[in-house]
Here is the input.
Amino acid sequence: MLYEAGKRFFAEWSFLLTEAKHSFCQYPFFMISSRFYEKNRWLLNSINYYWDDLFKLLREYNFGFLPSYDRPLRWVNISNWKKKIKRREWEYRFFPFTIHTSELIKELLNLHLVKDVKYTSDLFCNYIGFNKRDDLLRYVNYYMPLINHFFDEQHQQKRDLNKYVKSTGLFSNEKPFTFILEILSHLYFFENNKKFFALHYDGFYEIDEKKKKMKKLAKFKLPIKLRLKRFYEWQRIKHHTESYWPSFKNNMKKIGQKLFIK
Here is the structure.
């Protein structure tokens, strides 16, 4: 049952749920996917190059994250969701959430994303590491009210997801429920005031979700030419995904359609 649910809904989270139930892993460990390198072209070396430092830091912090999506490490603003919903941003950029998403999280996890959390670190692929099994169990159990809300004990869907998350059509084999799991993946650390560390493309970082602070633990030497290349690459992507230009184009298109109809 969980295998089928994983293909339709959970993705990497099916691994976490299976481990929580059956305990087949040796600790410490990190979880990655077959598409890790596809999502991490900016990584200077093979992940094997970093294992010694990763597990050393994992023993210290108990939780760690690996990078994803070839972008700078930053804080993602979720306090502006109401504005995004009012602008219907899902029509022209990646924004799969609805007016009901934040209210549901408040109901189930007693935290309001827009009013309480406001920002979260941009590490969204669930490439997470656990030092001990107890760390994994505490992490997974924190999110069980959300999972139990939508799925029964056999992981069969019992409530409609469309009210809370939208399909975007931007990804092959898309699983909209994972959009919620990813945006909430650091809520456990915010709620419990726990720091974690992260490997990123220019170094290792300590992340404090509660205080919204990032501290660089180790710096990688990147040639200035490579830094500039990545900077301009990210600016191009950001222009199409986060600037107001897509909104402007969308509004102009609507105005043009109305004028044409008239």
